[in-house]
Automatic annotation (TrEMBL):
Record-level GO BP terms: methylation
Pfam family, one: Methyltransf_11
Coiled-coil features, chain-numbered ranges: none
Keywords for this protein: Methyltransferase, Transferase, Ubiquinone
Database matches in InterPro entries: Methyltransf_11, SAM-dependent_MTases_sf
Gene3D superfamilies assigned to the protein according to its UniProt record, in alphabetical order: Vaccinia Virus protein VP39
Name this polypeptide is given: Ubiquinone/menaquinone biosynthesis C-methylase UbiE
Amino acid sequence: MTSTAVDFDAIKHKQRAGWQTGDYPRVGNTLQIIAELLVEAADVRAGQRALDVACGQGNAALAAARRFADATGIDYATNLLEQGRERATAEHLPVTFTEGDAENLPVPDAAFDLVLSTVGVMFAPDHQRAADELVRVTKPGGKIALSCWTPSGMVGQMFKVVGKWAPPPAGVKPAVLWGTEEHLAELFGERVEWTALEKREYVFRYHSAEHFSEWFREFYGPITKLAAALPEPDRARFAAELADVPRSFNQADDGTIAAHAEYLEAVGVRR
């Protein structure tokens, strides 16, 4: 199926409803270290214009602003943007948060020295259009820096469980492809020279596998929406299958969860 046959606008409408369900920052805030590592890998400098695409509650924008970059965050979920503004105010950081679509960024061409996304832009349904937008808004010689979950890692396996209960729309490629070097090469071609491609691990730390499952079902919007729509006993089965995912990646030996989740950290120069 070609991209012209897919109603991406309808898909994004449903996605936005998912992200506006629950309270995603209760999960997303725990991932802040991914953003801190990414801005360090990208060598962000004071005074640079930095854009966090599909910013959610602003992890990468805040990380850039802590290093005195002129930071902006863009997302289509207004509830997440509001929490980003609250975080920036609490930390006295001058971050601009703007409503916008990762596939149609409301900013001029070549406007930013550094364009970032931490497990955000990967969820745009039209991968190629989102990649094209990242290139468009980055200055020649500027950097694009991404952190994306890999297919074989813990989060990739969690999405497999979710997909079993709510199959993705036909024609939409899996988000976790962004966590592969091959897909980045396909999306960006010669327009970006990837100078660093490193697989890292984020550790999900919870009281138990059941606690992880409960937390994601309550707060991770798309999963919250899915779980609420399932009838019993399917809801209980889904909860159990979700708990099995961190259990299989757990490296803790004290009864808690310390599940290692692989992601790809990619930094490139826009040609």
